[in-house]
Specification:
Strand content: 5-15%
Radius of gyration: 21 Å
Largest sheet: 6 strands, parallel
Mean pLDDT: 95
Number of strands: 6
Shape: elongated
Helix content: 40-55%
Number of helices: 14
Strand order of the largest sheet: 3-2-1-4-5-6
Low-confidence stretches: none
Length: 337
C-alpha cells in the first residue's frame, strides 16, 4: 500500500526506486508538509554564540573568530554566504550570544557567551529559555514570510565541545568514541583535554541533568538551545527542515528526546566527519544510509544543509515536471496504432 507521497514518486517515468534516496527524501518532504507544494521556498538561519568552556583549553583558536566570522557571513563573504547565494537561498545570522557588546546580524543576544561549564553551569534556566525561544521565533518569522522549508547552521568557537558534552550526557555514548578534533585536526592533546573537561562536568552536574533542557543548560551552548527551540517550532508548525552536521544533529537528538515526532520534520543532508555524528543521528532515529552526501565535510555553518537543499529542490522539480509513466504508456499505445 502506498500513501500519497509514495504515489507522487511512483508515477514518474523511471524504473521504480531508481532515484534511490532522492525519492525517499522528497517523499519525506511531502509527508512533512500540510499540503503538497510544487516548489520550495527556503530560508537559512545561522545561530551564532560563544562558549565559555574555551577558557578551559579545549580549542586552539581565539574566541574572537566567532565574532569575525559571523560578521563575514553578514557581509556575504563566508562559505555559507556563498553557498546560499549560489542556490538563491535567503539567510540570516542570529546572534544569540557572541562575546561582543554589539550584536552581529539579528540581535537576540542572551549574554556575551556562556559560562565555562567546568566551573559552573553554562547558562541559567532563564538564559536557556531565552535562547530556545529565539530559535522558535525565527521559525515563526519564516512561516509568516511564506517559507515552507528551513535549514539551520551555527557558528561558535568551542561548539564541538559543548555538542559532545550534550550528546554524552544525553545518550551515555563513550567519550572515547564521540570526541573529535573539531577545528583542531592534528592536535590529539586537544581531544584528550576535551574528554577530560566533559567527563568532569557531566559528573559534576548529573543531578541537574534529569531533563534534556537541563543537559543543554549545564553543558551546552546558546546555539544548541536555539537550534532545539527552532526544531521544536518546526514540528509544531509543520515546517520541514534540512539538517546540517554534528552540532545540528545533537540539537535534533535533544529535540527528539523531548518530542520524538520532531524527527518526521528533519531531512538529513551530509555525514559530518565528527565521530559523534553517527551517534547523534542514531539518537534521532536516522540511519547512515539515509544520509545522501558523503563528502568529508566538517565546516558547519549549514553548508551541508544548503547542498542537501539543492538536491531536494532538484528532485521536487523533477517530480512535477518529468513525464509520467501513464503519459509514456499512452504515447506507446498511440505509436503502436
Amino acid at each position: 500500500m502506498m500513501d500519497a507521497a509514495a504515489r507522487m514518486t511512483a508515477r514518474m517515468a523511471i524504473p521504480p526506486g531508481s532515484l534511490g534516496l532522492l525519492e525517499q527524501q522528497v517523499q519525506k518532504l511531502f509527508r512533512a508538509w500540510p499540503k503538497f507544494y510544487e516548489r520550495i521556498r527556503p530560508y537559512h538561519y545561522i545561530f551564532a554564540a560563544d562558549n565559555g568552556v574555551v577558557t578551559a583549553g579545549v580549542v586552539r583558536q581565539e574566541q574572537t573568530i566567532t565574532y569575525l566570522q559571523a560578521k563575514n557571513m553578514v557581509e556575504g563573504r563566508a562559505a555559507i554566504s556563498c553557498f546560499c547565494k549560489a542556490q538563491n537561498v535567503p539567510y540570516a545570522v542570529v546572534d544569540v550570544g557572541i562575546n561582543r557588546h554589539e550584536a552581529v546580524g539579528l540581535d537576540r543576544k542572551v549574554a556575551q557567551g556562556t559560562k565555562n561549564f567546568l566551573e559552573s553551569p553554562a547558562m541559567t534556566e532563564r538564559e536557556f529559555w531565552q535562547a530556545y525561544d529565539a530559535g522558535a521565533e525565527m521559525v515563526q518569522r519564516a512561516q509568516v514570510a511564506g517559507c515552507n522549508l528551513l535549514s539551520f547552521g551555527e557558528m561558535g568557537i568551542g561548539n564541538t565541545t559543548t555538542s559532545t558534552a550534550v550528546l554524552h550526557a544525553l545518550t551515555g555514548a563513550s567519550l572515547l568514541e564521540i570526541t573529535g578534533y573539531g577545528a583542531n585536526p592534528g592536535h590529539p592533546e586537544i581531544v584528550l583535554r576535551k574528554r577530560e573537561v566533559i567527563h568532569a562536568a557531566v559528573q559534576k552536574y548529573r543531578p541537574l541533568m534529569k531533563a534534556t533542557q537541563g543537559i543543554i543548560r549545564c553543558v551546552g551552548g546558546f546555539d544548541i538551545a536555539a537550534l532545539c527551540g527552532a526544531m521544536m517550532a518546526c514540528h509544531e508548525r509543520k515546517i520541514p527542515f534540512m539538517l546540517d552536521g554534528f552540532i545540528t544533529a545533537v540539537a535534533l537528538a535533544c529535540a527528539a528526546r523531548i518530542e520524538p515526532a520532531v524527527c518526521a520534520m528533519a531531512i538529513p543532508s551530509h555525514m559530518s566527519q565528527e565521530p559523534g555524528m553517527l551517534y547523534a543521528l542514531q539518537a534521532a532515529g536516522i540511519r547512515p544510509d539515509e544520509v545522501p552526501i558523503q563528502a568529508g565535510l566538517r565546516l558547519g555553518e549549514g553548508t551541508g544543509a544548503i547542498l542537501g537543499l539543492s538536491m531536494l529542490r532538484t528532485m521536487l522539480y523533477t517530480v512535477y515536471n518529468m513525464k509520467t509513466m501513464d503519459e509514456l504508456l499512452l504515447e506507446s499505445c498511440g505509436a503502436a496504432k
